[in-house]
Amino acid sequence: MKIIRWGVLGPGSIARKFCEGLADLEATELVAVGSRSAESANAFADEFNVATRHDSYEKLVNDPNVDVIYIATPHSFHAEHSKLCLNAGKAVLCEKPFTINASQAQEVIAIAREKQLFLMEAVWSLFLPHMIKIRKLIAEDAIGELRMLQADFGFRTGINPESRLFDPKLGGGALLDVGIYPIVLALDLLGKPTDIKSFANLGATGVDEEASILMKHAQGQQSLLSTAITLDTPHEAQLLGTKGRIHIHGSWWQPSSFTLYQDGKTAQHIEVDEVESLANGYNYEALEVNRCLREGLTESAIMPLDQTLKLMQTLDAIRAQWGLQYPMES
Fold first, then answer.
1. What is the pTM assigned to this prediction?
2. Known catalytic residue: 96?
3. Which of 133, 182, 216, 228 is deepest in the core (most CB within 10 A)?
């Protein structure tokens, strides 16, 4: 099996979780780390026993020993850093949100397609075993026609204008950070919305601190979603069909279990994480990237680039209803 050699651009907390998952995969090596400072690169590389440490992103993307780069910088830098990697001929897994807006996403996607390089948005929740199983059950008509979806993702943190979560210049706010999870779930199962009604509370720094979103989809299906960075929400999801429903237990967007309710049948509690040795769930999106690279694919069928563009267009439409524009967009 071909060994896939990974590099990390932007060593931080999310990159740490990703690399913990990466360590569980066969024929997979973390070979290089790139940061804006040697100190940061060395500290991260020491933690994960990585031999090559680069004190600039430019050096990382030009490292001939790297096959694919995981981008884990703040939201507002995703487009810039994806372009940097792609223009250096590197495959890319970019942390969500893919970019700040759909216009940036189109630019990045165009480069990847022109250069025929692999590119994917790292929405790890879509690759988890319970989500694969749920898609299969829905396709098999286990709950009839899926007509309504309810999902949330909110957490409470102290208001800090210096934090990236509250900084508009870094694409702060609940929507792009955690609201993206219930939205991408709705798009994955119901398709791009045809109508959106949403409300948000914009805080002192101008970013969305709490929001509720109602979306109508092509066949009249509805999704009811909520997100926050100042409130703890249940972290559960309900998929409501004409013959039953699926309750995904908290936290639904990470490795989880679910209960299948079918009309006239006893409820089934289903555990689906078949490989207990796989650590934290981030391994599954990396596994998909590895598979695609070994097969010579430039996109994943689970999170194709057209789906990423639809997601960014949906996020843009929601923010437009709130009048929320980031400084780099003006």
1. 0.96
2. yes
3. 182
